[in-house]
Design goal:
The complex is a heterodimer. Chain A is an alpha/beta fold. In chain A, the strands form 6 sheets. Chain A has a 6-stranded mixed beta sheet, sandwiched between helices. Chain A has a 6-stranded mixed beta sheet with strand order 18-21-22-15-23-24, sandwiched between helices. In chain A, strand 1 (about 5-15) and strand 2 (about 20-30) form a beta hairpin. The longest helix of chain A has 16 residues, at about 175-190. Chain B is mostly helical. Chain B folds into 2 domains: about 20-165 and about 240-380, ABC transporter involved in vitamin B12 uptake, BtuC (Orthogonal Bundle), CATH 1.10.3470; about 175-230. Helix content of chain B is about 75%, strand content about 0%. Chain B is built from 16 helices and 4 strands. Chain B has helices spanning about 5-10, 15-30, 35-60, 70-90, 95-115, 120-145, 155-160, 175-200, 210-230, 240-255, 260-270, 270-275, 280-305, 315-325, 340-360, 365-389, and strands at about 150, 165, 235, 310. Chain B has a two-stranded antiparallel sheet with strand order 1-4. A two-stranded antiparallel sheet of chain B has the order 2-3. The relative contact order of chain B is 0.20. Classes of the chains: A alpha/beta, B mainly alpha.
Chain lengths: ~525, ~400
Amino acid sequence: MAKILLEMKNITKTFPGVKALDNVNLQVEEGEIHALVGENGAGKSTLMNVLSGIYPHGTYEGDIIYDGKVCRFSTIKDSEKLGIVIIHQELALVPEMTIGENMYLGNECGHKFAINWNQTYAEADKYLKMVGLTESSKVQVKTIGTGKQQLVEIAKALAKKARLLILDEPTSSLNEEDSRALLDLMLSFKKQGMTMIIITHKLNEVAYVADKITVIRDGSTIETIDNHGQEPVSEERIIKGMVGREITNRFPKREGVQIGDVKMEVSHWTSHHPLYPEKKVVDDVSFYVREGEVVGIYGLMGAGRTELAMSIFGQSYGVNFSGELKLNGQHVKLRKSEADAIRHKIAYVTEDRKGNGLVLSQSIKVNTSLANLGAVSSHTVIDGDKEYAVAEEYRDKLKIKTPSVEQLVGNLSGGNQQKVLLAKWMFAEPDILLLDEPTRGIDVGAKYEIYCIINDLAAAGKCVVLISSELPEVLGMSDRIYIMNEAKIIGEMKAEDATQESIMAAILRSGRGA
Amino acid sequence: MDNKTILAALKKNAMLIVLVLVYLFFLFLTKGGIFSPSSFTELINQNAYVYILGAGMLMCMLTGGNIDLSCGAFVCLLGAFGGVFMIVLGLNTGLSILLLVLIGVAYGVLLGFLIAYVHIPPWIATLAGYLAFRGLGTAILSGNSKTGSLAPFPEDFRNLFYGRIFPTDKGVFNWPCFLFGLFAAGMVAFVIFSTRKSRLAKGYEADSIRTACLKCGLGGAAILLVMTQLSLDGGIPTTLLWVAGIILIYTFITSKTTIGRHFYVVGGNMEAARLSGVNTRRIMFLAYLNMAVLTSIATFTVVARSQSAYADVGKNFEMDAISACVVGGVSASGGAGSVLGMVIGATLIGVINLGMSLISLDANYQRVVKGFVLLAAVVFDILSKKKKS
């Protein structure tokens, strides 16, 4: 048996009123990839923050034994000195600085008052090569894509002489291709003897890279699963541990939904990039949605799905629009105004709930009523009691877990935030909902609940456009699927005819310029 | 009520407690001088502009920590115009006031347009006014007067912004003033208890009966105390009506109306507000239009009090208004803050100013003390909030 590099023993961490971690144990062997899985709010990130010294020694109970010694970190620097490096989910790069500057930020080469830039860039280039990046380290970070930025983060960690690398949701903002490349990179590091801990929601990735899987639920370790067998461990097996029950069907069935007439029809819809007006971000797109229908739009990141949805929603993204929009068979001329779109009963539920969906510094109540404030007020005076009642109603309806609707949205977990976002748009009483990645970054249990909400919406006769880059989700939830690639719709399939293979094949065919 | 809730209440009202402590401190230093009836009148008249500009600055800051640097210089320019209208040209007071408000609206529209629709950063757009208006105002003043100041303003103008309602001689108890105080205290009690009742009836969270009584008792007592002292000093200053009116109107706007809510969400997350159908540009526009109009009202109270328009009038007013907001807990990055907080901040600054001039501290040291007290107040506030989380 290999040597144990890290052991966390009986870790208990309490926040005011909440026990975030309760006697958690974790053992990581040298040279393995250890996956940490659990629902949102289960305590994975808290555990890693304890390990890296963000929560200093003394604020938690229990022991950290690293490389045979008991460690008491009081800052991140202490843990980094021993080679424990954490890469956070949200990238911590300064966009205006070069790759090299970013990699050595706080860890500069040379003298305190005379940074050795030649050495910085030479070293940086060396590490960039190790992660398979061909960019020069003198390039500004903002000029490279998210996938490459993630690799820069890893190169940065390598530059810190990492022995134990912790990756918190490294692929959450990457497309499938980049994700796979990143996972393969992890496997190659493993061969060189690096030890890694990966936190992720994507269970197929876990099965692919991890040697061992530790499941955390409600602040306690549930089990550690070995993934060394002949067959990779099944996703169902992991989910069972995560949610404490077996989810036999990840996508609830829609029953008794009558699909009606065509509600919205978009034809020859074209829009251009706001900064580079010659570039088309939506190119001659035509599609329709029927009443009570869930239409999936699948495409890789950057295929133009978000741009399409936002341009329909009051031209909130892009310039130089052309094309025709019909609602209920009537030609509609939407002005460049989000309020106008809402009046026409269109809702766009953003993929970026923190950035442009929710006001995190405000309460659940304020966020719920935001898009339809008129309904809880008379003559522009808000009826506080009515607003409260509405917020309570949606809290019950969507099972938002919170002590009070006066709670600030910023204090909720990702899944609950997503539900507040949905509540806001459901309260706006739209006929057409454009849902952009409605389950991004939330756990299996919350996903299931959101799927149920989508089904309820369809059953109520709403049109749902489900934009997603998760193939199983699109396949599991949609009645009809459009496939987008490079700003165009390249295919339409009925759900029963579509398979993962046929969709990917369609994208590959169009990508080759066929 | 256990210790925990008391502690939480103390922390929530940290700045109010600081205000009381600072007041007691000056009460001791001035041997009761700051408690004299005339001090109360002085406190209100001297600081009226801080409350009025503070209300405008609050609305700007809510939209994302944006400020208006030009309001102090704009006071000088409007004062100069006022002097020309009322003293040099001898125009009717009502007409002059209307013209000055219109000049305010014109500047507000221009500023709002530049900031909201041309996307000029607010501090740069207002820096231009900060630089230009005082120069223009001083030029107008020296062009119309050898001394560089215009005085005196007509009697009716001064009565409107620096007079008293039902005036009586000093020392004679002014019953209208006291009765008004009783009425105001009664209104406070009514609002507190009727809100509580309706919330309880619908089964929502509400204050306990003790908290409600405490709030009502303290609020009512403070109002009665101020109004009693004013009754002994000749009656209600008209300035108080202007200030109280503006405070009430803006409290209502920020807490009860959709437009007020929009100010908060624009400051909390501009993109989310836009994608929820809020006309974010209009909100930015209104913030600065509103600021300019309030600046014109502030000008009236200041010019009426000093009885003249001069080159230095309005100096550093923008800083006073910003300080009142920041001390009053308005977020420097927008999206959070209340009119009540701003009022407490403005009063704290006013009490410090008045206290120091009562003990006749050297003007230079007054500034030093003010600087440190402001810093200390904000540090105290932030530390007390930090411990809470």
